[in-house]
Amino acid sequence: MKETLAYYICSMNKEIVVSGIRSTGYLHLGNYFGAIQNYVLMQENYECYFFVADYHALTTHPDPKLLKANVYRVVAENIASGLDPNKVALYAQSDIPEIPELYLMLNMLAYKGELEKVPTFKEKVRSQPDNVNAGLLTYPVLMAADILIQRAVKVPVGKDQEQHLEMARNFANRFNTRYGQEFFPEPQVFRFNQSAVKIMSLDGNGKMSKSENVNATIYLSDDDDTIRKKIMKAKTDSGPTEHNSVMPDYIQNLFLLMDLTAKPGIADTFRSQFNNCTIRFGDMKKQLAEDMVAFVRPIREHAANLQADETAIKKILKDGAEKARAGASKTIEGARKLIGINYY
Ligand code: TRP
Q: What is residue 323's predicted lDDT score, i.e. its pLDDT?
């Protein structure tokens, strides 16, 4: 057993991190500050595998042309946001045939009853009742395969994915128990030291997310004028009438965005104006709009240039797949052996 384990332990001795990026939707500030920025920090200290979850996207039968364009865009936007394909393995899930192979093996250890109970599945049954396919039901098994194929120990995911991760631990343990070896480590949720930044929608309605109001969401692909318009329309009010009032959350959100994008000191100036009731939100938003434009523009331009360079994107995906398959093929080889399906 020791020998087998040693064989798999990576010589780099860094902890292995895996995370999947959805291939649908345009990236926005919520993704940028909530997730990508943390990936960028992680790439320095962990052995990172970040992939575009294109197989997962097939559960909703996307148009083939759009799917491909989306994958290219997501790769370009993530790199423009700071992910370095020389430091991490950045790949498409469907380029790793070992993932569906492990998915098949894990499906034999996943039970209909437990899969039907998953809240994200139940939600899909409600929202798309005429397409409740088996891929949707076994979504958590595929996600477990994504993670276990690299024998990852850390997975940076949001609250909504924690149950999927718990299932991945269950499948790993079931495999280990059935085949008598600590083959798969238990993947844990990766929590960031500094509490993850949560950006609210500019209309004050919950978090900035893909499905929310597009006019209250700033996308990394928005042009300068669109950004200005969206910021100027952000929800404010007539301002405080008492010194040192408590800030409503939608005002706090504007200050947070200002802290994240403006030069040091600027937000503090407006904060004192808020505290002594002289603030004019129109002026504050004008300032924020310009800082936001300056912040998003280089990311947008970098992403657009990269996306237009198909040769570059293809090379990044190909190199990423090669890196990811190195470990993946070892995992499959080991799993086949343990299951007994190695015949020659
Ligand atoms: N299910 C995740 C989401 O919806 C994406 C995902 C797929 C993922 N496979 C993964 C995340 C593996 C972490 C690890 O956001």
A: 98
